[in-house]
Design a protein that fits this description.
The chain is α+β, with helices and mostly antiparallel strands and 789 residues long. The protein contains 20 helices and 25 strands. The chain is globular, with a radius of gyration of 27 Å.
Length: 789
């Protein structure tokens, strides 16, 4: 048979199948559909393929072959935000199943419970790759759905291997796919056939291929002509549509699967391919099927001769030692290593993001593109790079350091007419500017990272000399001189160590945590300057650091405070008088209170970096107020979780924090506007920060004995491990139990803010390294020798 005739026959069969699935219907009505949102940010799994660098960059042809640029997330037992292209470019809101039963329709996530497991582990149950087995169980016991989820490291494709079991029957399952192509949910178009579901916007395309044809397929607009709205009406898929035609909007694509009698099981494989055309997306999906999905998983895992996640884990020379410090057998340590590497862009090597999530996403409008936390903050970035270095990863932190000039302000920064040298507040991984507030710790930390890599021998003297001229010196000069900003809305003048924003990005003034980083940045910059032959700048940096360090207490330690005995570090002082009870600004719906009523853990960073000894009087004086559980809930920061006699301590960011769920309505952050009912909850990485302080305090008293080290492990390491969910992911915030409880929330468990938070995983790994070394990992010897004697 001639090739043209074969193609015509295949096309005819496809059209016949599509026509059979869509009798009498063509274009879906009801455009554009409901206003779109994102989805639950409390992930239990995130994943992407491991891709090896080629000369410090991501490019095809290396040990892992072609570079796959697909990331996925899992929440409530279903596939949620899935990215293709750059790490923030979401293409899917969610993929879930609806099941029609004799007693009604059940929808995954809403009507099911879920558990998350890793598909590939070692003999001790420690995960070796971010491939998942997800099991959702109907709350009424009528069915169970098992999904195995991973990406194809050789194609831009995602694999779902699904097994549906009917415990009671009959049941009829439907696959429901909600695309959000090009990172929005408003301009998608789609086509549905029994052998493929296709969605696209502009030049971005997604195709879902089933291994066997659906019994019916449809595309519709959410809330008007989509399959779920149809099914909820009478339990039947009555109206099916082939295409959205020339209209676009918020879509759902759906495919019907065969009916199952009680006791029957159905197994189906699905591959989602992505590309810059329909043909490219189809080729990606078909390529995975051609490889064989067992083979795709073996490649993803790095089994046998394949280079994959096993190889990355094996390259982490310090991971076994760190896992030995853990109290859970090392499971969270291995998972944390995977999480940090997953959350790196695969186009811009070293671009480390904060989280593969959009905080409180189920109420966040998806009409316009949003990165959420899928972006670069140099502060979070520093934490992750330092944790990867602690694991023994010698490549990613170096790539991270080399990436940083992309997000540093210079004369060529688009729109800049002001000061240079500072690092942007928040950017896309390609350097596109998103937020332009000046946070001095984010300018200091790149210097600190550079010094650490240089001292570790990963950056040569020659490369560091080049980096000094191009990146380090401009940053250090700004930490000394400051300047007037001229970028976008920002025209403020910054005079260090006064910062336009402190580490919570909300207030201006003098901050203990920011000042600690600035001092450490200047002292390490002086070391680099001296080695680069710039003695004059080195002297200037040290003089500024000495000045800032000498005024820490005078600027930020109150002796007339309203809390405790009145002597403690403030969260922030708006000016150089910490006793004037000046008002902080209103933020997150909270009124501006006098600065002496607000405390946070930022003072502990003075110890971590070496600016103050763990036994400094000002540090010891502040611990009582920081730990005071008798404060009213608005001002209280410390909470305990777990049974009496075996509790885990946790802390909020600061008193009067409003970055969290509403106490009065149980609503998500920001729903209904910024109101006084909002309350920031407990952040687990503060448990790690306190563990670092307690280690420093032990070391200040001499060499700690085995019992003291065991105490650290059982309190602080085990405490952080208790905050992990069943997918071994650590959250940004956990529920503190104050106010109305949102549905599904449990005290001490992650909220819908953001999970996994890279910073939390980084803090956990750094705590393991610090305890293993009997030395605080982030302590800078030149700083400590100068100030913490």
């Amino acid at each position: 048979m001639k090739k043209s005739l074969i193609l015509a026959t295949v096309a005819s069969l496809t059209l016949t199948g599509a026509a059979m699935a869509h009798p009498g219907h063509d274009v879906a009505p009801g455009a554009p559909g409901e206003t779109p949102t994102w989805v639950n940010a409390a992930k239990t799994g995130v994943g992407a393929s491991y891709e090896a660098y080629v000369d410090g960059r991501y490019q095809d042809g290396g040990p892992t072959g072609a570079v796959s640029r697909v990331w996925f997330s899992i929440a409530d037992g279903v596939l949620t935000e899935t990215m293709y292209g750059l790490i923030h470019e979401a293409q899917i809101k969610q993929l879930r199943f609806a099941v029609q039963t004799p007693t009604g329709l059940a929808v995954e996530g809403t009507d099911t419970t879920a558990r998350t497991e890793y598909l590939h582990t070692d003999a001790d149950g420690r995960p070796l790759s971010p491939a998942y087995r997800i099991v959702t169980t109907d709350r009424d016991g009528r069915f169970e759905i098992e999904k195995r989820i991973f990406t194809d490291p050789d194609h831009n494709a995602l694999v779902l291997r699904v097994t549906l079991r009917a415990m009671e029957g009959p049941v009829t399952p439907y696959l429901l796919l909600e695309p959000h192509i090009a990172n929005t949910g408003v301009a998608d178009r789609g086509e549905a056939a029994v052998d493929a579901l296709h969605a696209f916007e502009g030049a971005t395309h997604m195709v879902l291929r089933p291994d066997q044809r659906f019994t019916a397929a449809t595309v519709g607009f959410m809330g008007t002509s989509d399959a779920l709205t149809d099914l909820r009406a009478d339990g039947r898929l009555n109206a099916v549509y082939r295409t959205t035609g020339e209209t676009s909007g918020n879509l759902m694509l759906a495919g019907a699967l065969p009916r199952l009698a009680a006791g029957e099981t159905l197994t189906r494989d699905f591959v989602l391919g992505f590309g810059d055309s329909r043909a490219a997306a189809e080729a990606a999906a078909d390529g995975s099927f051609a490889t064989g999905l067992d083979g795709v998983l073996a490649r993803y895992n790095g089994e046998g001769d394949h280079v994959g996640w096993e190889d990355y884990v094996a390259s982490l020379s310090e991971l076994p030692r760190l896992a030995g410090v853990a109290t859970d057998g090392g499971k969270l340590a291995y998972a944390s290593a995977l999480m940090l590497k997953v959350q790196e862009d695969r186009t811009h090597a070293g671009a480390l993001i904060a989280s593969l999530s959009n905080p409180w996403g189920d109420t966040v409008d998806a009409t316009n593109p949003s990165t959420g936390y899928k972006a670069v903050w140099p502060r979070d970035f520093y934490q992750v790079a330092m944790a990867l270095l602690a694991l023994g990863d010698t490549e990613t932190p170096l790539a991270a350091l080399r990436y940083l000039p992309q997000v540093q302000v210079d004369a060529e920064t688009p729109g800049n007419t002001g000061a240079t040298g500072w690092f942007l507040q928040k950017t896309h991984v390609d350097g596109q500017i998103e937020w332009v507030g000046v946070q001095l710790d984010q300018t200091a930390m790149p210097i600190m990272l550079g010094w650490k890599l240089w001292q570790g021998g990963l950056v040569s003297d020659a490369e560091m000399a080049r980096m000094y001229t191009g990146m380090i010196k401009p940053a250090a000069d700004f930490l000394v001189e400051g300047g007037t900003i001229g970028l976008d809305w920002n025209d403020r003048t910054v005079t260090p160590p006064w910062s336009q924003q402190e580490r919570w990005e909300e207030q201006e003034g003098y901050s203990p945590s920011t000042t600690a980083a600035v001092i450490a940045g200047l002292v390490t910059a002086a070391e680099i300057a001296k080695a680069s032959g710039d003695a004059a700048s080195a002297a200037r940096y040290l003089a500024a650091a000495d000045d800032y360090a000498g005024k820490v207490e005078a600027r930020m330690f109150t002796t007339e405070g309203a809390l405790g005995d009145g002597d403690y570090f403030l969260r922030l002082s708006r000016n150089e008088d910490p006793n004037d009870k000046g008002l902080l600004g209103e933020n997150n719906g909270q009124p501006g209170l006098p600065e002496d009523r607000i405390i946070d853990g930022g003072f502990l960073e003075l110890v971590r970096y070496g600016v103050r000894s763990a036994t400094a009087p000002s540090i010891l004086a502040t611990l009582g107020e920081y730990d005071d559980v008798t404060l009213e809930d608005r001002l209280r920061v410390r909470y305990e979780f777990g049974p009496a006699g075996d509790t885990t301590p946790g802390w909020r960011r600061y008193g009067n924090d409003g970055y969290g769920e509403n106490m009065e309505t149980a609503g998500n952050y920001g729903v209904g506007g910024m109101t006084p009912g909002q309350r920031g909850r407990v952040w687990p990485f503060f448990t790690g920060e306190r563990g670092h302080y307690e280690l420093a305090a032990l070391l200040a008293g001499g060499t700690p004995d085995a019992a003291a080290i065991e105490g650290l492990r059982q309190t602080w390491v085990r405490g952080m491990e208790r905050f992990a969910n069943d997918g071994l992911l650590l959250p940004e915030q956990v529920w503190d139990g104050v106010g109305q409880t949102p549905d599904g929330y449990a005290t001490g468990a992650g909220t819908n803010s953001a999970t996994p938070l890279a910073w939390t995983h980084a803090e956990y790994l750094k705590l393991l390294r610090s305890i293993a070394d009997r030395a605080v990992w982030d302590r800078y010897a030149p700083v400590a020798e100068r100030y913490a004697r």
